[in-house]
Specification:
Layout (H helix, E strand, L loop, with lengths): L2 H5 L9 H15 L19 H11 L9 E9 L10 E10 L4 E6 L5 E3 L5 E3 L3 H4 L4 H13 L5 E6 H11 L3 E5 L3 E7 L12 H10 L2 H5 L6 E6 L2 E5 L1 H9 L8 H21 L6 H8 L4 E2 L3 H11 L6 E6 L6 E5 L5 E5 L7 H11 L2
Parallel strand pairs: 1-6, 3-12
Antiparallel strand pairs: 1-2, 2-3, 4-5, 6-11, 7-10, 8-9, 13-14
Helix pairs in contact: 2-11, 2-12, 3-12, 6-9, 9-10
């Protein structure tokens, strides 16, 4: 197991089966922005306890912040994992920010091509930031995203591609996604075909590799790719289809920004499906199985109270926010010609980004 993989390993040592069940339930609940009323869960009801209060009490015991906590910030990470090219890159970076005082939930998409300079001085696309932080990856990445967004990030939840496919296809038996814009991508990678030569000789492969780079190089090997088509409208997707829908890079002129929007569409589809199964008799088993696919740093005391405390959030207003060239970002390129996004006010200058997010959340 690599150091990166160990960071994302499920932290189940010492947990009881009940704690694992609660962990699965709470993570999906938080990830889906608290849109679930769970009346059948076997959780003892506590009088007049709120999530901010519980978080505050936990943080105080750990020497944390004051008792007046009115928000919850969760960083949602999606990554390839073992067996995938670039498995240590976070293809999904979404911030779930819940404001209990304003009864509002913000889904904030951070494009993976955002160019950042890390505390160690290294410049990289933000999707490579996690692995660059080493053993303190999750804690450091939360702090870094807080610096960029101006929002306090309390916890993270991570899921690899295999876990995502299992959650959608096996645990949920498919989801219905409201596709806002037709996705037509002739260049979606086929897993296992990454090294196919497509009939070229080794010399020809060397020649095209020297002549082309980036997407133009990819286009020289058509046998490595397949055609994706998702028509606008309501589309039922299984695990592999939903994964392809959120990962596609070449099906829209808006590229990475459109992908962030599609990720939010899938989150909302997950919410809808969970609400439709809340009365199933096997719900505890469902969440127990789900917990195997998710990693997190949520505290066990918060887990204990999160679901009943967050039930009221199911009726909160939802705000979808995408950092893009339509608002605070602009297209740029690296010294090597790679496409990146940077703030309009200049590289690593985040004040306008923070101001924009604050205004959108408080509208």
């Amino acid at each position: 197991m690599t150091g990166y993989q160990s960071l994302f390993r499920q932290k189940s040592k010492g947990k009881t089966s009940r704690q694992k069940f609660l962990a699965g339930a709470v993570i999906l609940t938080a990830v889906l922005c608290g849109f679930i009323t769970v009346k059948t869960l076997f959780i003892k009801k506590e009088a007049a306890v709120t999530l901010p209060q519980v978080i505050s009490e936990t943080q105080q015991r750990q020497g944390g912040i004051s008792a007046d906590v009115k928000t919850l910030g969760l960083l949602l990470l999606g990554y390839g994992g073992a067996g995938h090219e670039g498995g240590n890159l976070t293809d999904v970076l979404q911030v779930i920010f819940i404001d209990f005082a304003k009864a509002r939930i913000a889904l904030i998409s951070i494009p993976r091509d955002l160019w950042v300079t890390l505390p160690n001085g290294k410049s990289t696309k933000i999707n490579g930031a996690f692995s660059s932080f080493g053993k303190e990856g999750s804690a450091s990445l939360k702090q870094f995203i807080s610096k960029i967004s101006g929002l306090k990030i309390d916890y993270y939840a991570g899921m690899d591609f295999v876990g995502f496919e299992r959650t959608v296809g096996i645990n949920l038996k498919g989801i219905e996604v409201d596709v806002a814009e037709t996705l037509d991508d002739p260049w979606y990678p086929i897993r296992g075909n990454e090294l196919e030569t497509c009939g070229m000789t080794p010399q020809e492969v060397a020649e095209v590799s020297a002549k082309y780079s980036g997407f133009e190089l990819e286009r020289q090997f058509p046998c490595r790719y397949k055609h994706l088509l998702f028509e606008k409208g309501k589309v039922v997707m299984q695990g592999g289809e939903a994964l392809a829908y959120v990962r596609s890079r070449h099906g829209s002129s808006a590229g990475d920004i459109s992908r962030g929007k599609r990720q939010q569409e899938v989150l909302l589809a997950l919410r809808k499906k969970i609400l439709s199964i809340e009365s199933l008799d096997n719900l505890p088993s469902f969440f127990s199985d789900l917990s195997k696919n998710i990693t997190t740093d949520l505290d066990s005391e918060v887990i204990k109270f999160l679901i009943p405390a967050i039930q009221n959030a199911k009726d909160f207003e939802v705000v979808r926010i995408n950092l893009s060239t339509e608002n605070v970002l602009k297209a740029d390129s690296t010294s090597g010609g790679g496409a990146i996004l940077i703030p309009k006010e200049g590289p690593n200058r985040w004040l306008d980004v923070q101001k924009f997010l604050k205004e959108e959340i408080n509208k």
